[in-house]
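Take a careful look at the protein record below. Let me know whether the C-alpha cells fit the sequence:
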Amino acid sequence: MYDLATRRHAVRLLETGRSLNSVSKATGISRAAIRAWRIRIDPLPRLDQAAPCTGPDDPAAYAYLLGLYLGDGCISPHPHGGHYLRIACADAWPGLIEECRTAILAVRPTHKVCVVQRQGCVAVTSYGRHWTCLFPQHGPGRKHDRRIALEGWQQEIVDAHPWEFLRGLIHSDGCRTTNWTTRLVGGVRKRYEYPRYFFANKSDDIRKLCTDTLTRVGVRWTVLARGSDPFNVSIARRESVALMDLHVGPKH
C-alpha cells in the first residue's frame, strides 16, 4: 500500500505530460497502479470499515426479534469481518419462520435473509456489520452461563413495545398448550381442560426479563421448577391467558 502523498506525486508527474512508462521507472511503481490512481487517488474504504450503528429501523420489529434472539438466537463472526445473526426455528412452525424473516428485514431493510435447513429446524440467517451492536448480549458460551442484561436503549424499546418482546420470547422458548384436570360434578368426575402459556429458559436473567415484562402488562404468572431449579414461567389464570391470546397467540 502506498500513502496518499506518493499517489498524488505519481499523478502530478502524469499531468506534466510524462508517459506511464516514464513515471513507473522514475517511481518504481507499477503502471497498473498509476493508471488506477489517475482515475481515483483516494484509497477505497476497507471492507471491515463499517459506518456507525444507527440502531434498529423498526423498534417494534426489533422488540420481537430481541425476544427471538434471547430464546433461540446466536451471533457468529465472519472470517472477513461482520457477523451472522442466526435464529433457530422449528420446521413445524412455518409462520414463525416467515415472521422471523420479516422482522429481520424490518430491523435492517438493506440486509439479505436466507433460510438454512438443518435437521428438524431452519436457521433464519442474515449477515451484517452491526448485529453485535444491536444485540450486545452476544458473548462466548451459552446465555445461561453468563449475565444477560438489557442496555438502556433496549429497555426503552421493550418498555414501548412490551407485547412484541413477549411474542418473541414465547415464539422462541415458549408455547401455548392445553392442560387438563378432573373435577367432581354432581358426584361424577369429569375432565376439565384449560389453556396455558409456558416460557422455559435456563437463564435466570432471561426469565426475569420475561416475568418483569409480564408484570408490566398485567399478566399474572408463576414459576415452576424442573427438579430443584426454576425453569418454567407458567401463565394459567383465565384473564391472563385471555390477554396473551389477544396480544401473543400460539405459534403457527
